[in-house]
Amino acid sequence: MNAIKQIWLKEIKEELYTWKSMVWLVVTAFLFSFTTYLLLTNKELSLLDQTELLFLLSQIIIGVGLLIITIDASSIITSEFEKETAESLFLSPIKIKDFILGKFLASFTLWVLIFIIATPYITVSSAGSNLVLPFLGYVLFLGSLGVSAFIFLNFAISLLYRSSKNTLTTSLIVLLLLAIPAFLSSTFKNNTLGSFLGKVNPIDNIFGFLDNVLVDYHTRLIDNWQFFVPVIIFFALMLLFLIYAVRVFKRRGLIQKEL
Amino acid sequence: MNNIISAKNITKSYGPQLAVDNLTLEIKEGEFFGFLGPNGAGKTTTIRMLTGILKPSKGEISLQGQSQNGNNNNAGAIGVVPESRGFYEWMTGKEYLEFFAELYNVVDVEKTVSKLLNQVGLTSRANSTIKTYSRGMKQRLGLARALVNSPKILFLDEPTLGLDPQGQEDIQKLLKNLNQQGVTIFYSSHLLTEVSDLCTRIAIINRGSLVAEGSMAELQSQMSTPGQSLKDIFLSLTKE
User: Fold this and answer.
1) Is 70 exceeded by the pLDDT of residue B169?
2) Nearest chain A CA: its distance from B227 CA (Å)
């Protein structure tokens, strides 16, 4: 437990000392301010129904969270290999499980901070409706599931490739492949392929879930199981992928080849 | 004295390439053991196998009677200055040692870190970030990290590389002192005078195989010309 805490604290301090996270958080705050300002003041956008406006805002919060966490998590493990700090670390009594958990907590903390920044925007935009709590709760819950799955994916690729460039490229491709269909037109979604992709795509289903909650007022989890199941399956698959990558890493060892 | 490090017929291969070939080493408790070899002879690979970072392809390793087979089960008893010299450059020297002391569950972190900083002469720069340290200071910090858990066995892979004569002298004094306190030292270096001055027993490897082993006097007696220096012995045993 102490090793997990030490790794988590080290990462948080590094993110603050190197201003990596601070830059992301400032960008996030700016982006949320700009979006909310547009939604509330733009002539055409301000005509949107409040529920539509909230749905749009929820998509932006989760989308921004997934993008930033994917970029951040792609280097959190690989930097230990690239900066040659891994050998000293693994010579200490640390277990790989503690190392991964500490790193996971650090990446997840960044998502929590993004959500905290988003909270005032959510509260202001939901004023007057009874959707504040479901909005906050479901954005946090679904965002956390999605973000965790993408952290697992990033960590698994990091352990297999041990290169931040390869990890970032692969993770961004996966994120884009999953995110693009969610923003495609309903015409595409209505054909057979589009309909199938929509049913299995986790990001599409996170947004479908939020649409059902915010626009159609189906706020209970049980009313949204058809959206929830693909998200949970994606989460479980990414966790299994990470477990597989850890096993491969253990088998290969820290040093892959040297003479 | 019991063998504190025991490696029996260890081999490490990377595909068709043989890095270490059927190497056997027995090191007794309290020894100052020198480990020599030309570049690419397999010294670092051997140290990585002995410290558990690398799993041998064949053979058995034990430290203090405990099996060491590509794991860090013996991490609490050993200290290592590895070949890779990566540091968390954004940390201060003090924070760096505190981080590792916490990982080793050291009881009094503050006292231990303060003592180590003093021991390696970094007290005045304890609160400076590592990125501002010279190469010599980083070497000394690496040595302090290796000592954070008060190890019984210390593995050093070229710890004085790139240090000026004063820096080398300081590290040698510190190592002599640690050895006198009972720490077993496994020392790999290219500085042959340093090795012959410090080590009670020396092993020389070439192309992954052991070519000579013994005290300085034993090594000299194995040679055709008596009274040769370690440099002459090393060159005659490792020349292509």
Assistant:
1) yes
2) 33
